[in-house]
Amino acid sequence: MIGRNDPCWCGSGKKYKKCHLSEDRKSPQRPEPQQKKQLKEKKLIKSARDIEGMERAGAFNGELLDYIRPFITAGISTGEIDTLVHEYTVSHGHTPACLGYRGFPKSVCTSINNVVCHGIPSPGEVLREGDIVNVDFTTIVDGYFGDSSETFMIGAVSEEARHLVTVTAEALIRGIDAVRPGVPLAAIAEAIEPFAVSKGCAVVHQYTGHGIGKKFHEHFTVYHHIDPECEPVILFPGMTLTIEPMINRGTWEVVTDQVDGWTVRTRDGSLSAQFEHTVLVTEGAAKVLTLTPSQKAAGVRLFVDGIHFR
Predict the structure, then answer these.
(1) Residue 48: CB atoms within 10 Å
(2) What is the pLDDT of residue 31?
(3) Which residues, 6 or more positions from 243, have their beta carbon under 8 angstroms from its beta carbon?
(4) Which helix (H) or strand (E) covers residue 238, if one does?
(5) What integer pLDDT is reported at residue 10 of this predicted model?
(6) pLDDT of residue 7
(7) Where are the beta strands (DSSP E) in the chain?
(8) 236 with 44: CB under 8 angstroms?
(9) At a CB cut-off of 8 Å and minimum separation 6, what does 148 contact?
(10) Which residues of the chain have pLDDT under 70?
């Protein structure tokens, strides 16, 4: 039985007493638990119009990544990267979703070496030979959100860094391949974490993927590590979500900068990498909405320094 103060079975996010309690009391055919679960999940399914909107947002985000790619070299500052992303996005009539989101001060996140996520671009932070850097951005296109990221290797990097980056890319592909209609959301974590651990790496627990659509973060959390508290969501065609594993070379534990309140680093100072795509659940394999034009032309879903991930 659902309590008065429990979340409503319909998935509205409201308390049951504020949502369907009165209606259910009038109805002799109150939904059974499994029906309630299905009704909740079906509310997460996008309409054909919404899917078209998500496809446009994802396509622009991919285009933006290909635009920025040639600039990610030794000598550029992360502040310059932010400016390039902002100006390209705005000049095309779209909105950088990160700018101002919960107070974030820039249009893109740039996370270098041991920075796991939410690195704040700065004119004084310059990429150097041997660095790895994740560039993560989200764009609002006609009210819909496209979200993706990629980790770049700057020049000749260490074997440890190359190993981490390629493992992280493969982890994302395995997570995408786990997406099928009728499978539980937990299948994504079950595909990612054992693989990463087998390669001597660890999956960050504190930061996850998410549902996405007309809001940046919609209902349900996409775990990349196996956790018994993962929501018992079943994937249906029409759902859209991000898969964005953050993989560390050392422990999975992280710390947040106490000064800026945003920058997340590995607790042990080890390297961290991340790749992200926005995907659509279909009747068959997941459709990646944020492929770049160059990835589409190559028939791949990611490529890292000549390695193609199909």
Answers:
(1) 8
(2) 42
(3) 172, 175, 176, 179, 188, 209, 222, 224, 276, 277, 279
(4) none
(5) 53
(6) 65
(7) 95-96, 109-112, 115-117, 132-141, 144-153, 202-203, 209-211, 218-222, 240-243, 246-248, 254-256, 264-266, 272-274, 277-280, 287-288, 302-304, 307-309
(8) yes
(9) 58, 61, 62, 65, 136, 137, 138, 276, 277, 278, 290
(10) 1-4, 6-17, 20-42
Q: What is the pLDDT of residue 232?
A: 82
Please report the pLDDT score of residue 306 as a whole number: 78
CA dihedral 168, 173, 179, 183 (to 10 degrees): -60
Among residues 105, 46, 27, 112, which one has the least CA distance to residue 74? 112
Length of the chain: 310
The amino acid that residue 236 corresponds to is F
C-alpha 256/C-alpha 253 separation (Å) is 11
Under 8 Å between Cβ of 92 and 146: no
Place of tokens 């996405």: 212
Residue recorded with tokens 């879903």:
301
Q: What is the pLDDT of residue 8?
A: 59
Please state, in angstroms and rounded to a whole number, the distance separating the CA atoms of residues 120 and 111.
8
pLDDT of res. 229: 77
Query: Look-up: residue for tokens 């949502």?
Result: 19
Specify the pLDDT at position 127: 98
Is residue 156 a contact partner of residue 130, using CB atoms and an 8 Å limit?
yes
- Supply the pLDDT for residue 28: 42
Residue 34: is it exposed, middle or buried by C-beta count within 10 angstroms (0-12/13-18/19+)?
Answer: exposed
Q: What is the pTM assigned to this prediction?
A: 0.85
> pLDDT, tens digit, for every residue of 291-303?
999 999 999 999 9
Number of helical H runs and strand E runs in the chain: 7, 17
pLDDT at 37: 47
Q: For residue 270, what are its two tokens?
A: 């080890």
